[in-house]
C-alpha cells in the first residue's frame, strides 16, 4: 500500500473512532451535559494551544527546551491583572525595563567595533564575565531603595478595596528628579551586557555588518519609549484607570502580550544565546529561571491567589440568547443550544481560534515567517543574504513567550492568579506538541483540543462517578502514550 493510501486509510479510521467516541459520550452524558462539557473542553483547549504554540516555536524551530515557559504564562496573568486592576506598578517599572533593553539592543552597533580588539584567548573568555559582574553591580545600584514592592502591592490593595473611585488606590510615584538616574544606570547596565554578549575580540562570528540605519533603529525606538514612559508614569496610570472597563481589559491583553515579547527577547539575548553550544545548560538555566521567577512573584504579590475582575462585557447579570444581545448588554452568560454557558469562556475559545489562524498565516504566508523558517533550517544561507540570524532566533523566542503570556492574561479572569498557575499548563503544553507533532501548528491546535476535551470529560466522569479528580490528568498522559505507540512522530508530525 502506498504512503498516500495509508494516510487516507488512517484518516478514515480516525474519523470513525472520533465519531464513535462522540456518539458514546453524547448518549451517556445526555445533550445538556455533553454540550456544556464540550464547551469547557474547547476553553481549556484554547489555553493549551496558546502555551503549546509558543513551545512549538521555541522547541520545534530552535530545539530549545524552555522549562520556564509555564512561568511566562504565569507572568502574563500577573502583568494583565496588575495593569487592569492598578497599573501603577507597570508604568513605574516599564521605563527601567525599556532602559535596560535599550542598552542590550546596542549589540549590532558594538559588534563590528569590538571584533577589532586584539585580545588574547584568555581575555576573550575573561572579559565577558567581568562585564556581566559589572552589569549586575550597576543594576543593583539602579534599583537601590526603589520601592518596587510598594508599587506591586497597589494591585493587591485595589483588588480588596470597596472604593468606587479607582484613582483612590493610586500610589504616588517617585519624583522625576530622583527617578531619572535609575533608567540611565540601567541603560549602562544593558550596554555592558551587550558588550559581553558580543564577545569582544572574537573574530569567528564576523559577518557582513548591517547598514548603520538598521543598527540604530531599535535602540533609538527603545530610547524614545524610555523617555516617553519616564515622563508620563503618573498620568498614564490615571488615564488607564479612568478608561472604560472593556477598553482597559483590551489594553491589558496588549500590555501582557508585549511584556511577554520584550521579556522573551531579553531572556534570549542575555541568557539563552551564550548557551546555544551547550543545550543541557539551557535546560538547567530555564529550569532555574522558573524557580527564580516564581519566588520573585511571591515576594512581590505574596503567595495568595487573586481573582481578576471580569470586564463589563462579561460581567452583567442575566443571560443572552444571541451573540448580538450579549454584545449589547454585556451578559455574563449566553444560551447555546439551550445550555447556559459563561460568555467569557466563549471569548477564550474565540481567542484561541483567532490566534491559531494568526500563527499559521504568520509562519506560512508572511515574509517574517519565511525568514524565520529559512534562518532555522539554513542559517549560513540567510546570513549570506544580509539577514541577522541571531535576531531571527530572538524574534522566535520572543514570539513564543508572548503567546504564553497571552494565554496567561486570557486565563486570569476565570482562573486564580497565583504563582503555581503556570506549572500545569506547561506540562499540558509539552504533551500537546508530543501528540500533535513537533513543529506543526495544526498538530498543536488539534492536540490542544484533544487534551482539553480529555480534561473536561475526565472531570465530568470523575464528578459523576465519584472518582479521584486526578483521573482527568491521567487521561491526557494515557492519550500521549497511545499516540507515541501508534505514531511516534505525532499526529501531524513528519518522520525524521
Could you characterize the architecture of this molecule?
- The protein is mainly alpha-helical.
- The chain has one domain.
- A 3-stranded mixed beta sheet has the order 1-2-3.
- Helix 2 runs antiparallel to helix 20 and helix 3 crosses helix 19.
- The longest helix is centred in the first third of the chain and has 32 residues.
- The mean pLDDT is 82.
Low-confidence stretches: none
Sum up the overall morphology in one term: globular
Mean pLDDT: 82
Counting DSSP E segments of at least 2 residues, the number of strands comes to: 3
Assign the structural class, choosing from mainly alpha, mainly beta, alpha/beta, alpha+beta, or little secondary structure. Answer: mainly alpha
Helix content: over 70%
List the helices and strands and how they pair.
Elements: H1 3-29, H2 31-62, H3 69-85, H4 88-104, H5 107-114, H6 121-143, H7 148-160, H8 176-179, H9 181-197, H10 212-231, H11 233-241, H12 245-272, H13 279-301, E1 316-320, H14 323-329, E2 331-336, E3 339-342, H15 343-365, H16 367-377, H17 379-384, H18 389-411, H19 421-436, H20 441-464, H21 470-486
Parallel strand pairs: 1-2
Antiparallel strand pairs: 2-3
Helix pairs in contact: 1-2, 2-15, 2-18, 2-19, 2-20, 3-7, 3-12, 3-13, 3-18, 3-19, 4-7, 4-9, 4-10, 4-11, 5-9, 6-9, 12-18, 15-16, 16-18, 19-20, 19-21, 20-21
Amino acid at each position: 500500500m502506498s504512503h498516500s493510501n495509508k494516510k487516507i486509510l488512517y484518516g478514515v479510521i480516525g474519523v470513525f473512532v472520533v465519531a464513535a467516541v462522540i456518539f458514546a459520550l453524547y448518549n451517556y452524558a445526555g445533550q445538556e451535559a455533553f454540550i456544556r462539557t464540550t464547551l469547557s473542553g474547547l476553553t481549556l483547549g484554547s489555553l493549551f494551544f496558546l502555551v503549546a504554540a509558543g513551545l512549538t516555536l521555541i522547541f520545534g524551530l530552535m530545539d530549545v527546551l524552555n522549562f520556564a515557559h509555564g512561568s511566562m504564562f504565569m507572568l502574563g496573568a500577573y502583568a494583565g491583572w496588575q495593569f487592569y486592576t492598578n497599573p501603577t506598578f507597570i508604568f513605574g517599572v516599564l521605563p527601567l525595563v525599556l532602559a535596560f533593553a535599550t542598552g542590550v539592543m546596542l549589540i549590532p552597533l558594538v559588534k563590528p567595533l569590538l571584533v577589532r580588539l586584539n585580545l588574547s584567548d584568555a581575555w576573550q573568555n575573561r572579559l565577558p564575565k567581568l562585564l556581566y559582574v559589572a552589569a549586575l553591580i550597576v543594576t543593583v545600584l539602579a534599583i537601590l531603595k526603589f520601592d518596587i514592592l510598594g508599587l506591586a502591592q497597589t494591585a493587591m490593595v485595589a483588588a480588596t478595596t470597596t472604593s468606587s473611585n479607582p484613582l483612590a488606590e493610586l500610589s504616588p510615584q517617585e519624583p522625576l528628579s530622583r527617578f531619572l538616574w535609575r533608567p540611565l544606570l540601567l541603560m549602562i547596565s544593558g550596554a555592558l551586557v551587550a558588550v559581553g554578549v558580543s564577545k569582544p575580540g572574537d573574530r569567528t562570528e564576523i559577518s557582513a555588518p548591517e547598514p548603520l540605519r538598521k543598527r540604530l533603529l531599535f535602540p533609538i525606538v527603545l530610547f524614545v519609549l524610555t523617555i516617553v514612559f519616564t515622563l508620563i508614569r503618573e498620568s498614564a496610570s490615571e488615564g488607564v484607570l479612568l478608561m472604560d472597563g472593556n477598553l482597559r481589559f483590551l489594553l491589558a491583553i496588549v500590555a501582557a502580550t508585549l511584556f511577554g515579547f520584550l521579556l522573551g527577547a531579553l531572556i534570549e539575548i542575555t541568557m539563552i544565546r551564550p548557551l546555544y553550544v551547550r543545550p543541557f545548560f539551557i535546560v538547567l538555566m530555564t529550569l532555574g529561571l522558573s524557580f527564580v521567577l516564581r519566588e520573585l512573584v511571591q515576594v512581590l504579590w505574596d503567595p495568595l491567589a487573586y481573582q481578576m475582575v471580569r470586564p463589563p462585557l462579561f460581567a452583567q447579570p442575566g443571560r443572552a440568547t444571541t451573540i448580538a444581545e450579549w454584545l449589547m448588554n454585556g451578559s455574563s452568560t449566553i444560551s447555546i443550544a439551550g445550555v447556559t454557558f459563561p460568555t467569557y469562556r466563549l471569548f477564550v475559545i474565540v481567542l484561541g481560534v483567532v490566534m491559531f489562524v494568526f500563527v499559521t498565516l504568520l509562519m506560512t504566508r508572511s515574509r517574517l515567517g519565511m525568514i524565520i523558517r529559512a534562518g532555522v533550517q539554513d542559517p549560513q544561507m540567510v546570513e549570506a543574504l544580509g539577514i541577522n540570524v541571531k535576531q531571527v532566533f530572538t524574534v522566535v523566542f520572543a514570539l513564543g513567550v508572548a503567546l504564553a503570556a497571552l494565554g496567561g492574561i486570557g486565563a486570569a479572569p476565570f482562573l486564580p492568579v497565583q504563582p503555581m498557575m503556570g506549572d500545569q499548563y506547561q506540562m499540558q503544553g509539552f504533551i500537546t506538541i508530543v501528540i500533535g507533532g513537533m513543529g506543526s501548528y495544526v498538530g498543536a491546535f488539534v492536540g490542544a483540543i484533544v487534551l482539553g476535551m480529555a480534561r473536561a470529560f475526565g472531570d465530568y466522569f470523575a464528578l459523576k462517578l465519584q472518582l479521584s479528580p486526578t483521573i482527568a490528568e491521567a487521561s491526557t498522559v494515557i492519550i500521549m502514550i497511545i499516540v507515541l505507540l501508534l505514531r511516534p512522530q505525532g499526529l501531524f508530525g513528519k518522520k525524521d
